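Quick question, first post here. What does this chain look like in 3D?
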Amino acid sequence: MSDPTKAVFLSYAREDTDAARRIADALRAFDVEVWFDQSELRGGDAWDAKIKKQIRECALFVPIISARTQARGEGYFRREWKLGVERTHDMAASVAFITPVVIDETTQASADVPEEFLRYQWTPLPRGVPSPQFVERVKRLLEAPRIAMPAAPAVAGAPPDNARSGTAFRSAPDSGAEAAPLHRPATPLPKPRLPGWIWATAAVAALVVGVAAFFALRPATKDPVASTPNPKTTTQDPKPLDFASAKSIAVLPFANMSNDKDSEYFSDGLTEEILNALARNPALRVAARTSSFAFKGKNMAVDEIGRALRAASVIEGSVRKSGNRVRITVQLINAADGYHVWSEAFDRELTDIFAVQDEIAAKVAQKLGGGAAPAVATAGANATVPTKNLAAYDAYLRGRAAQTSGFSEELSAVTVRHYEEAVRLDPDYALAWARLAESYGRIRSSGYDRGETLQTKARRAVAAALRLAPNLPEAHLAQALVAQAVDFDFEVARRELDRVEQLRPNDPDVPAARARVERARGNRSEAFVALAIRAVEADPQNSDTLVLMAGYLTECGRFADAERFCERAWSIAQVAEDPIRVNVINLIAWTGDVSAALALLETTPEPLRAPRFYFRRADLRLQSGHLADARADYEFVRNQMSERYRDRAGPRGTAMIALHRLAVIDARQGQPARAAARHAEALTEVDGYIRDYPDSTTGFTTRALIQATQGRRSEALASMEDAMRLALRHRDDARTVELVRVSRGAVLGALGDMDGAVAELRGLHEAGYAFGCTLRVSLDYEPLRAHAKFGHLMKEAEARANAVPRRKRAE
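> Answer (accepted):
Ran it through. Tokens below.
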């Protein structure tokens, strides 16, 4: 539209640029001329003359009002407001010209605006997110700009005349419920020149009302737990972003504009596939999926997102799926100044979905100067069309949505179910096989299931993925995880990760995967610490990686870094207790302050308190001498495990230790017979565990500790020998060997072999194992604390912890 009598002039304070851009993009998507250009906020006579000319000629004058305009007594926008008011002096009273918009809680009664603005009902657009009703009203005003429409249609229930009286009036944000549906036009709407946000997809919609659902998704992060302390947006200290590095990019999750609002998994999956297609290009550095998706639903400026992700460019878009057709809109934005470099809409059949993903990636790469992606197909025959079965693709996307929602037993079960359905529908779906193998491997490494059946499934799944697509990066990532977590073959894991980097340079998942391998090998060198930190830098908004690396750094004695990573993880996502739990472990090792650790643990929101929360709290309560409270927690853990986790290795192991701890409490309270009965029950549990999980050292070390507590020396030592024999089966599995040695120190102490126990633990200490203050507070080392040599070892371990400066806390 080039007719100035059909143009809208946006007047705003520079602090509200992002809100103004959202409004401008929404209107432009429907071919409305909008005079808004943030790059021209620079002053000068020529620019001043241009602004005055636009205000004289525009059809609608839209002042954007907020707390920021309230706070500024001076500003060029106030001159614009006066010019807009002056123009109304030459207009008939019936002419609609000024259309005020308020983007926050500012009321008309309190607003510092020209008196004339109070003659009109203000349109509330929280955070500048335009509603379908707002766009439709602007279009109606432009179609008949001289018809008497001085005020906006009132929201149902609002007094019709109070806006003119100047009294405070704040209508509820538009939700679409009160809007009359817009019928499909006889001819298609013109293709938007600038889609902006999600409005281009609505251009072909039968109902504009459907658009409102997206805006409900983006404005703010869901409040996961009402009782959660309000965390800072981020605790990270990102490096300054070099916006000149134009080939770094972040792909933000595309908005779901489909009528079926439960199909968000589809838009998320499509976003990830575009991201992966870009990541195949060695000339580009693409922010990790998890970090990009951390900004889903958050109302943040593009430059803030760019800095957080260290990306010079950002891609936003939307997806509308209807029947067998899909419309995808994409816009490429310069993160430094918000300038829209390129935008386009793609209408395709679902059968063409994979081709359009590659087409979008190629166009983005060309705009960034990265050229086309490598000519060699990343996944062999499956690169362009990984599956022709749309039902299998749908099942895969559902599995991926569950997999990336967080890690828990329930989510893992859902993930596996969908991936298994995908490969059942299409046995040649290599990517689905790779993700399935990855899911099996993660369950195995977490300790939830260490059974042979799961291990066999993991091996078969990854073999299928590699057979079908030998060059698929995800398949080699899955092979690395299976090799490390299932087969303990670290050389294979390393080789597979090298292959991933050849296929997809700068893959953000590789540093974390390498850190897992090196940690399993017992590496605690400075190079390993640097690798753990690089894993976080490669995916800075990935809370799972932050927590995992925090645990590794605690083991290396890097307590301050571990604490920082835990706090960052919690600020990003409060969907699981892991950040707090790992931070508690770190705090104990760093300070030995059981009371502080217990207070920190208690900040875990009630809905996130899994059985291991109660086990950890029970240990802390027992260490503090609160026996009754500790008993209650251990009993709760036992009941939970018996009812829900009989077929899970990790929880069953926790339940066995809880039973042993209950026996310890019985003994302390002068009930030796009851303690003996508990230990007998615990040994029965251990025998069943060893029978079900013969390759796990946990059953043997637990049996040894119980036997040592009972004074059964030869049997305890034999159990430890069995545990060490298992640990030494895999040449490079140093981490398992370390854990067995830690247990052997506790067992020898319980048997009264103080010198042997200290020698075992000192060997670990001198090899770099960061005991910190745990030797002083751990329940398993109580028999050793009166021993002089153990006292010397404790002081040395604590001296290392004390050498790490602690952050000053605000009082």
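The chain has a mean pLDDT of 79.
Residues 248 and 660 are 54 Å apart (CA to CA).
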